[in-house]
Records
---
Amino acid sequence: MEPTERRVLVVEDERAIADAVAARLRAEGFAVEIAGDGPAAVEAARTGRPDVVVLDVMLPGFDGLEVCRRIQAERPVPVLMLTARGDETDLLVGLAVGADDYMAKPFSMRELAARVHALVRRASKISSVGEKTPSAIRLGDLEINQAERRVLRAGVEAHLTPTEFDLLVHLAGRPRTVVPRERLLAEVWGWADASGTRTVDSHIKALRRKLGADLIRTVHGVGYALEVDR
Ligand code: CA
């Protein structure tokens, strides 16, 4: 079944950029809504229920990081964060508050469209996951309920972003096996190139913070492995 038109919320106060992004995404077949400040973005995410949010960090009202925090708290949705060039802090905080991907300004419209398509593909995989996969994975004290997208470790629930959840499921599908970062990038993020391996690292960091540092082992220069007892 062909899905209905995908909705993208573009949050950017610079009108020229917002209009250019919206025009490109509409040309790619998306329904696009624009919000120009923090409060409007939170409201638009609530009422418009977008499939993907393209979110600038620098906004009037409150900033994109706070927008991300608030919309993720209400309903998990893939977020592509737009950061100032070379602003490491924005990037790291953005990933920590639940952004799934980021691009530094200035960016190419072609690249932006490709990233939005990748996030949508991931989101539709998520919504169909209940039918194809076993609903529960149990590994030692780790419990993953795929139907409800909930995770518990030693009986304590951890609140993961959609990307963190998918990353964990991929690692849990091959416990104690080293999964290369490039493969995680391709399978979880849908990227064909390996330019975003630091995105993988940042999300692994978040998983360790939420589920315990001992859960995921780094294999230097290669990738990551989930370490749990059977
Ligand atoms: Ca801005």
---
Amino acid sequence: MKVRLFTLLLLLLLVQAPARAQTLPYQNPDLSVEERVADLLGRMSLAEKIGQMTLVEKGSIDPAAVTRYAIGGVLSGGGGYPSGNNTVEGWAEMVNAYEEAALSTPLAIPVIYGVDAVHGHAALAGAVVFPHNIGIGATRNPQLVTDIARITAQEMVATGIYWNYAPVLAVPQDIRWGRTYEGYSENTALVTELSTAALVGLQGEKLSDATSVLATPKHFVGDGGTAFGTSPVPEGLLDRGVTDVDEATLRAVHLAPYVSAIQNGARSIMVSFSSWGGKRMHGQSYLLQDVLRGELGFDGFIVSDWEALKDVAPNYADAVVLAINAGIDMNMVPYDYAGFITTLTAAVNNGEVTMERIDEAVSNILRVKFEMGLFEHPFANTDAQALVGSEAHREVARDAVRQSLVLLKNENNALPLDANASQTVFVAGPAADSLGMQSGGWTLEWQGFNQNNRTEGTTLIEALEAAFGENTEIKYSARGRYAAVNGSEAHADIGIVVVGEDPYAEYLGDSADLALSTRDIGLINNLRDKVDKLIVILLSGRPVIVDTQLNQADTFVAAWLPGSEGAGVTDVLFGGYDFVGKLPYTWPRNVGQLPFDFAHLPAEGCDAPLFPFGYGLSYASAEAAASWLELAATCAPAAS
Ligand code: BGC
Ligand code: BGC
């Protein structure tokens, strides 16, 4: 009897012990978020609080250091895939290891892991790659945007990542900016509508769901308004520069999308590298505190951009104090996290940063971590793993590609293509066989990739070959070289030239001339003489200068950066679907027209843009283009 009672007691203890460890108030999901935040904050040391405010790039930190410093956030920067194992499982293993490291600290606060899944989870090989936002802007379809964002979230949680540095809320005003393609449009209302739709899709029905990810509207605020020539980066022209507008303009053009994002549940916001009113955004307490927190009522957390802290003052210690006091909560210090921690600790100890400010920052971060359900489901969602890169996901991307294409010109019935005609088709341009050029920056690597088809998808040449019937003789030459037949010069009924910008991201994509490469100009010249009908497909992150080529071509299609599903392009070229895309940006005739004064754009004469915002033909409306195309022909310099 005695023995049995003892065993029973022992059993009871065993059952209770782990249960009790899990029911500290902050670990109890039945308590309110604010109760949990207050309880947890009360248990934290200064070191744990500062660790919580620290966000480190995974290449600079191993899991052991996450435990040692009680780090709050880890990210994959551009190209931050697990090297040697860029698979769903490889990512999940990598992210879970950081998570386990965080959970083995005394307070077991989960780490929040972030990535730039700005057009799908595109650093993951085999993930579906959606069109970049410029193409999405052309679709003007908010439901489609929400669907894309839902899929992106699924592919992210499969790898253990619940935090996306997206959507971009920039309203790019000058397309010479290298991040133009990251923005949906030059038009604030369109950006607001589509970025809100993306946020809603990423965050799902409830942020705490294991299929939801935290969205991060970025970059607050005015990133799209920087003036040409103001970039502080030696390689840059506009990126990270000065948004030289008055406050009314800043609010009307650039702030408006944030109002909607916050109303629709934005819980983390990333600050812009740019400056306004003589100050770097990371040191702007007026905009961060008074406007974002006060006026807009934002009570999620504010995250800094990549190493941006150090730019707010010449001396690092001053910079940290200034930025934290301006309102930065989570600090993206990708490399030197130890230096940041030492500096901020010293600033608290000498009173330059108050404990209240630290507590506020940490509360903001913890609040969102609780809302996300991270304490309840910190690890990769294995149920979602089978969906990554699935046919169902690719079908949505393919549909997005169809809707994103903008038909600029279509004469001589060059389109639609006829799959069954007996014909010869020449295809030219390295871009026709390049998932890298189709996808642009932020695809596998920060700057994207140019060589080899490093992920899964369909190139344009593959899509064309699959779509043409057996009576078509299709010859692809990247360099546009076709053998003479029986002594007479090579000739085809149809020529399709795919031209475009080589991949780029951020300041490395700033461009003074927006020129087509001499390679591409040469390809078009060369093919024009060899074919009856010439179709040009442009892959680019923005409008580029094409007036001469537009006149040479019978048909001209702006396909933007469509991503992995090239068959979406052929679906429309063969007439199975109509063109529905509309220009999300005004298209300049020459760079002398930039930056546009949108309020006073001429509609006629050679000072008018090549094409206005919203331009885009369908098969039925191709005639309506006559006046714009006539003007283009009159104003263009002679073909060389
Ligand atoms: C970019 C951000 C990005 C961050 C992390 C920065 O350089 O400006 O948009 O989220 O890097 O990769
Ligand atoms: C990182 C990017 C980051 C960029 C900023 C790169 O090395 O991979 O994530 O946006 O630096 O300059």
